[in-house]
Amino acid sequence: MNWILLSEICYSTIVFLVCLRIIYDTRSSSKTLAYLLLAIFVPVGGMAFYFIFGINYRKRIIYSKKLVADEVMLKELDRRVISMSARNLKRNIYDVRSAGSLVTLIMNDSLSPLTGGNVVKLLINGEEKFPEVLAALLQAEHHIHLEYYIYEDDVIGNRIKDVLIQKALEGIEVRLIYDDFGSSSLRGKLLHELKEAGVEAHPFNRIRFLLLANRINYRNHRKIIIVDGKCGFVGGINISDRYINTVGEKSRQYWRDTHLRIDGPGIMYLQHIFLCDWNFCSDQKIQPEHHYFDTAPMHASNTSVQIAASGPDSPASTIKLSFLKAINLAQHEILLTTPYLIPGGSIMDALKISALGGVKVKILVPGISDSRLVNAAAWSNYGELLKSGVEIFTYHKGFIHAKTMVVDGYIAVVGTANMDHRSFDLNFEVNAIVYSVEFGEQLRKSFYNDLSDAVTVRYERWKSRPVYVKLAERTARLLSPLL
């Protein structure tokens, strides 16, 4: 009996200490409550879950993102970014319009400049993205940089591998960063072939013990390609056959996604992100030399582009703040596409305020989801949005994986970040923000084209869900800060 009592005292003490750590180390009150409930009511497993997935690496900062360590150089970079953004705001005042405060927010938070003189091309699905990517890679003359969450050993993965090997054998610098969790199929023959041909490849965070690795919770979800410092790609499409919808192949689920090709100085900050990430995962010290940053504007267009990026290493969640600011700037219309709608209280409130203030707010989400738990948590949020006048549509042609937003037809966002806690605080993400009436109209048309394959969620239908469904959704919502 004494041993039983002693064990109970020891266990209670451990739970108490873990609870203190959760309270001290977790910034979000909703996450704190969720972790506390797990630690108290799920013996041992709840505490294990917290230590595997819940440690706050934003406070600990996984690594420094400063590419140039010298303080004098940082001050010079700061001055140049501010000067560039101010010039481009003046030159492109029509396209940027009243979004100057959004530009300034991103610039002040992460030193990401507003760039002009870009050519931006909207790419729908893998059918449009991969031919553009392969053509750009084949034209490389100095370097190719790739950073991907998922790189699969399949048909398109091997086609890109063959081009990378060809360019490496020609003497072109080829570097690949891959997420060790998302690109698990890359390990083996394909990776060996790349390295044997001279391609440098490194996992962003190597996972040595999969089940015990808490770095698994901090995934590099970025999808970036830079060619010669002139051309870049960013968006939601990974390197995988699933994103290519082959005509007549009925067995494969249709994937709907969106990507961008950017030619011009808009890819400068994408290059900065890549080199920072590369220096971290490769233990190299590549410096920001001129040939990596060809910032000459394109004469064919004057489209303004700014990059928003954040992750567990960021002092603040730049992407979340940029979404909030863009939503708050809306005067007429917000068109939002996301595969996961669990945005948290601040963005939920911003969307409701916009709708109640007369702004048309339309949100497109999956009708067919790849995660029942996440989908259930998202459905639990729909009621308060619908009551506020937000229109929600579920996409049924297949799985919609695109992450886009258009505000008032001239602020267009395309990137890797979902509308959820994981993208805002746990993953390394990147979004491109295009300030352009012309491009905004293209993305706007794409949104309305997708609505033709969607069903409107009616508030009456939402309310009439069976009790067991409501209970499951509310239970999933309790776990939403952890998803």
Characterization of the model:
The protein is α/β, with parallel strands linked by helices and about 475 residues long. The chain has three domains: about 1-55, no CATH class; about 70-95 and about 115-305, 2-Layer Sandwich (Endonuclease, Chain A), CATH 3.30.870.10; about 320-480, Endonuclease Chain A (Endonuclease, Chain A). It has 18 helices and 19 strands. The protein has a 15-stranded mixed β-sheet, with helices on both faces. It has a two-stranded parallel sheet with strand order 7-14. It has a two-stranded parallel sheet with strand order 11-17. The longest helix is centred in the N-terminal third of the chain and has 24 residues, at about 1-25. The mean pLDDT is about 85.
Furnish the topology, listing elements before pairings.
Blueprint: H1 2-25, H2 29-41, H3 45-53, H4 57-60, H5 71-91, H6 93-96, H7 100-110, E1 115-124, H8 125-138, E2 143-148, H9 155-169, E3 173-178, H10 189-196, E4 200-203, E5 223-227, E6 231-235, E7 255-256, E8 258-263, H11 268-282, E9 303-310, H12 318-329, E10 333-337, E11 341-342, H13 345-356, E12 360-366, H14 372-387, E13 391-395, E14 399-400, E15 404-407, E16 411-415, E17 419-420, H15 421-426, E18 429-435, H16 437-451, E19 454-456, H17 459-463, H18 467-478
Parallel strand pairs: 2-3, 3-4, 7-14, 10-12, 11-17, 12-13
Antiparallel strand pairs: 1-8, 1-9, 2-5, 5-6, 6-8, 9-18, 10-15, 13-19, 15-16, 16-18
